Amino acid sequence: RHFARQIRQIGGGLWWKASLGGVWAIRAAGIRGDPGFVVIDEVAGQWLALLGLAPAWGWPPLRGVLAAFVLFRVLDVAKPGPVGWADRQAGAWGVMGDDLIAGTGVAVVLWGVRLVWPGAFG
Questions:
Q1: Which of 1, 33, 41, 72 is 20 to 30 A off residue 50, Cα-Cα?
Q2: For residues 97 and 63, is the Cβ–Cβ distance under 8 A?
Q3: Exposed, middle or buried by CB within 10 Å (0-12, 13-18, 19+), for 52?
Q4: Which of the pair, 71 or 13, is modelled with greater confidence?
């Protein structure tokens, strides 16, 4: 449990540091739109997605990591609902927002699956 709490704290710290650092860097570089070479938004969103696994294990099992990755990519590409809305926003928060919302959605889904089916990922 102690190790799982440490991983959750590290992961929780990483997503918001990547988010704030990404917003700062995008603004400082004067980036317009969401160019492919900017990946800090995906890093922050994927960290958020993985937090849906963190409370249960120290290191999440490979099945859980793959589920988090695939679900995150599906939401990031399809951009349903609020993910698409955030993607259409201008500025640095628009670049970061769609991935943060997608990552949050994946974390909630993974957490929900674990509640209903505790052995789903390991």
A1: 33
A2: no
A3: buried
A4: 71
3-state secondary structure the chain: CHHHHHHHHHHHHHHHHHHHHHHHHHHHHCCCCCCCCCCHHHHHHHHHHHCCCCCCCCCCCHHHHHHHHHHHHHHHHHCCHHHHHHHCCCHHHHHHHHHHHHHHHHHHHHHHHHHHCCCCCC
Task: With beta carbons less than 8 A apart as the criterion, state whether 75 and 102 touch.
Answer: yes
Token code pair at residue 74 = 């599906």
In Å, the largest CA–CA distance within the chain is 46
> pTM score, two decimals?
0.86
